[in-house]
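Pilot study result, target chain (292 residues):
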Amino acid sequence: MLLNDLYLFSIIVDCGSLSRAAKQLNTTVATVSRRLCALEAHIGQSLLNRHARGIHVTQAGEQLYRQYAVDLQTIQTQLTEFKSQSQLISGRLKVLAPSNLATTALADFWPEFMRTYPDLQLDIQTSNHIQDIAEQGADCAIRVGHLPSSSLVQKRLGTIESKLVAAPEYPDITCVTELSEHTFAISQQVNNLTLSHPKQGDYKVTITPTHFCNDIALLKVMVKSGRCIALLPLSEASSCLQSGALKTVLPQWSGVERPVYLVTTSRKYPPPKVKAFADMLKQFMVQQPWAS
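Predicted structure:
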């Protein structure tokens, strides 16, 4: 508060009156007068004498102005310039992202983001394992699935729906109860899958997995062989469904929706570059057929 009042005192001296100083500082004359009185009380000396035509700076006021006030104005100017520079979307932005999502569903997002913010240096680190933001020195991370509670800030970007898919030549399935008789390729060691229907609700399918793969892109290749079914996120399967390389099995049934989050470390004052990234990524996902 003392530094702010010293800065206010310097503005009063430069303006030559309390009213002009109040106008420059976008405040009231009463506030300026009160803070000036508080500064004089703290120092124990009168700094200004008020008169009808304005103000007269006392000897103590002259000394204070010469020793401190001018330097404070310089600091204030530098702080204003620093704030202006810090609001620019520039510098380096390091993002952690799941490999499959980053290289397929978000493939069109990265060049669009780079064109929008040409002064930003984008550093994308992909992995199918959850990486620690602090250890990696990252600004943010894209995470898929429900996250445990933590001190990190979690901004929900949307959800990804999953569908049962198969090769076009794979035999048609007409009822959900038939699924237990078919061969599945899965990414996790499980014996059942939970599917949802808008009218019939949830149904748990007991399966006997035959093929396993921890990479969704390779899982998609296995399904294209025509030898199995898989429950794939639409972010990975939508392009193949549109081209006819895959077909949807039991279209009315879906897997559990998986939320997508942007995780950051700064809760109160996120850097402008992180906020710009989060806003643009959320807008991108809203426009995608595989997200909701």
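One observation from the pilot: The domain at 92-158+259-286 is CATH 3.40.190.10 (D-Maltodextrin-Binding Protein; domain 2). A full batch analysis is planned for the follow-on phase.
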